Amino acid sequence: MGRRILFLALPLAALLAACSGGPVRRISQPAASIQQLTVQADGSWSVDLRLQNYSSIPMRFDAVTLELTVGGQPAGTLQHRPDLEIGPETADVIAVAMEPAANARMLLADALAAGRRVDYGFEGSIEAAPADKGAARTWKVKRSSALSPAPGLPGVLR
């Protein structure tokens, strides 16, 4: 009888010990992409920037600084302090206003008039920290993709 209890108790104790650690706190590099770019009547741009949290815990996004290029032309800096908490393995969108460089403004206006897509890219940093505690860390980000005119929405690219 004693051996049978010992035989059953050891695997049960090992299973309980394995469960005692709680959920894993994995912190992963965040990402960003442009979800939508809207050309305003005054020529300025409103950029809907999608911030992606790949961590297994909620993260607080404190600052975003990205050097944007459109069609290979420097467009300016996307800079924002969102002070935004994003849940684990999810994303949120922030609107960032910017005054584009003249060459990039003309290039984008031409692409919109012709109804064609335009390549974009950015390089910069995202400052983020665990939402519950801890100091912020600066993550380097780089992305290249393309935006196309949104049908029926003048001045909007997605």
UniProtKB/TrEMBL annotation:
Signal found in the keyword field: yes
Signal peptide: 1-20
Keywords attached to this entry: Signal
Protein name in UniProt: LEA type 2 family protein
Organism, as annotated: Luteimonas granuli
Source species taxonomy: Bacteria, Pseudomonadati, Pseudomonadota, Gammaproteobacteria, Lysobacterales
